[in-house]
User: Fold this.
Amino acid sequence: MNNEKPTIHEFNLDIIYEYFSESERQGPGNCKETLKALGFIDGLTEKSKIADIGCGTGGQTMVLGENTPCEMIIGVDNCHDFIHQFKQNAQIKNLQDRVKGIVGNMENLPFQKEDFDLIWSEGAIYNIGFERGLNEWRKFLKPGGYIAVTENTWFTEERPAEIQEFWHKIYPEIDTISNKVAQMQKAGYLPIATYILPETIWTDYYTWQTFRRESFLKKYKGNKTIEEFIVSQQYEAELYYKYKAYYGYMFYIGKKM
Ligand code: SAH
Assistant:
């Protein structure tokens, strides 16, 4: 049975980090979509501070740095290698004075209460869980501050068993748009914008992986774990193309009430 294949969470993190480290983004997303979401955020000034949680190598953090006047943009990720690459990327773009990368855990963030004007998180809040992340991170926002996160979401009330079971196993919190918005409101945010990201953010991500798979398999020829990992990634991509009418990534933008 297909659904007995291991899911991504059952693999050694080092494999996952190495596999994704060469990509500008480690999850579905791109510069255009980051800028679109940023368009919903009002009132950022030279004194504002942004936290980008689960920033990876900083693809979207650099976009925030280049397109806001903010004094400080802090990217946090629990992967040392990603933060190392993040710092290099900030230097290349000459953003190192304002865009900082720190190693940290999103479940225990080293921030003060009401530190930030904006909390950003693309393709990462699922690691703590959407509802828990919204609840726990709220205290770090100033009153009237914004949160902008992306999250895998069901588009329909019902869906075929194969895809239901696949995502339920990986991320039991996957839910419908209306339930996610209700969770956001319950956590104390005014929902400002909720919209579906274009299919291309996922197809681009999977196309990049087709090339990555080849070089990765070549490097680790004969390594059964790597081969299984590649098969699991390929299976996820196949399911996306088969069932993309039923789910996808959404942006959820809220304002702390
Ligand atoms: N925002 C980036 C990366 C998304 S991938 C992008 O869109 O390109 C998810 C990221 O969450 C990875 O970089 C992973 O290392 C990070 N992550 C996973 N668990 C975490 C945790 N507990 N604390 C901090 N970061 C975490």
